[in-house]
Amino acid sequence: MAKIILIGGGSGSGKTYVLSRVISLLGEDCLTHISIDDYYKQLDMPFEERRKVNFDHPKAFDWTLLQDHLNKLKNDEPIDKPIYDFTISNRTDKTLHVVPKKIVIVEGIMALVNKKVRDLSDLNVFIDASRENRLVRRIDRDQKERARTYDSIINQYFATVLPMYEEIICPSKYYADIIINNDRFVNNHSIEVLASILKSYLKD
């Protein structure tokens, strides 16, 4: 039976960075990575209307499908995961066949928010970072990777991203077994602690 590890935290907190460091310490052969971003609901509306959707609210996600897929992965069953495209703010018509390994890491802003998802988890991790660092990282990422303009990033951040972080995402840290402060990238020993715990799961 696979171990499910949830990694949550605000947008721009550095979840992807922490995950990449863990993979570098453990290797890819024992890990399967799932992004909750791929479980945004399919939206049947024009592009400009999709841009107005609050993607930082739990209602934006297909929790039923995610729970079903995590149950299968936990029981060593493969899944066909949806693929989300941020440049069009919608799912694509393609899927990715995912075969579970010994550890399945599920990463996303809402990773610790849903109780039914937490009930499937073996370890809950929250990545913390200052408001300033989260904003700077989000601007850099969305301009480079998601075809967003500076003005649209700032408007969305203060309209929905920051309010939803304070109301929904930040409080989810109280469900975490481990909280990693990711304001600095050098000598962050808490990432090594997380990797050590995951290594113990591999031995079991």
How are the strands of the biggest sheet laid out side by side? Answer: 2-5-1-6-7
**Mean pLDDT, all residues:** 92
Q: Based on helices, strands and strand pairing, what is the structural class?
A: alpha/beta
The count of helical stretches stands at 7
**pLDDT < 50 stretches:** none
Number of strands: 7
Q: Please report the distance between the alpha carbons of the first and last residues.
A: 11 Å
Largest sheet: 5 strands, parallel
What is the quaternary state of this protein?
single chain
Overall 3D form: globular
Summarize this structure as a short list of keywords or feature phrases.
204 residues; alpha/beta; five-stranded parallel beta sheet; two-stranded antiparallel sheet; 7 strands; 40% helix
Structure description:
- With 204 residues, the chain is of the alpha/beta class.
- The chain has helices at residues 15-26, 47-50, 63-74, 115-118, 131-145, 150-169, 189-203; strands spanning 3-9, 31-35, 79-85, 90-98, 103-107, 123-128, 178-181.
- The strands form two sheets. It has a five-stranded parallel sheet with strand order 2-5-1-6-7.
- A hairpin with a 4-residue loop joins strand 3 and strand 4 (90-98).
- Helix 1 crosses helix 7 and helix 5 (131-145) packs across helix 6 (150-169).
